[in-house]
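#onboarding

Welcome to the new folks! Below is a worked example of what a typical request in this channel looks like: someone posts a single protein sequence, and someone else replies with the predicted structure as tokens. Don't worry about understanding the tokens yet, we'll cover that in week two.

Example request:
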Amino acid sequence: FPMRFFSYDPKADTWVNFPAYGQFNAIASQGKHFYFGSYPQGALLDWDTSKPWVSRRRRDHINPEQANPVILCASSLLTHRPHRILPYPDGNTIIMSGTPEYGYTGGGLLFWDTQSKSMTVLKDTSIILDQSTMSLVALPEGKFLGGTTTNPGTGGEKKAKEAELYIMDLPSKSLLWHQVVLPGVQSYSDMCQGPDGLIYGIADSKRFFVFDPAKRTIVYQQDVSVTFGRTAGSQSPRIFIHGPKGEIYLLFNKGIVKLDPGSFEMTMIAESPIPVEIGGDYLDGRIYFVSGSHLYSYKLQ
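Example response:
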């Protein structure tokens, strides 16, 4: 504290850092825009990377309309602690999920329409009662897949027994399907779409699963903690990393694992000398991740 935001340029080996508006829990990009989910405001911010970063701190005497990033909208009660941001492929909708305000149970979904500049919010009563959405993946034909967590807001009462997967229609924002597909699971940590249309996911930071959204069934599952330990991750885990040719990697505390989509086999390609803690991303032949206060990278062979 106080929270900071930094940007690193690997080619120039230079970095800059700025005051952050709250704690940037979740991040996603689309085109030249980066979107942040900020705690504790439950706010969605838009950083236009084609323009300079302009702090919105009061002591800098900045007009809020001139700030970059800008605050698009907020729902502190329902997305108090953001967990996921999904810029939908239609280019018009940003979806943000999170756990609720302190002492509450059941978070919501925040939808931002980039065309009309308007916000829509759904409560847990319109999604999965007493649960919050932890992971999100876009599906074809205007639908998306959500994975929940039974964890309440900080200090809240846990009421749900098992986490669920659900499918929602984006235009109508109506729930099409939901089910406990993995008995006993409390949180769907992260999910991504594979090249075959299947959804690959991690539940409770240790159970790997494959979900067929067309048939709405689990086609494969395995407790991978026996071999690799627990996955990396925090309040907004970035466990799955996509390579330039569609390769899929997973970040575990012990190192980097490569997934073969056809056989679902996993191979440890690099054991890490330090714990891979938060999650990461890919850029120019390297996988980047965070451990403690440091940024690390691994050069793919």
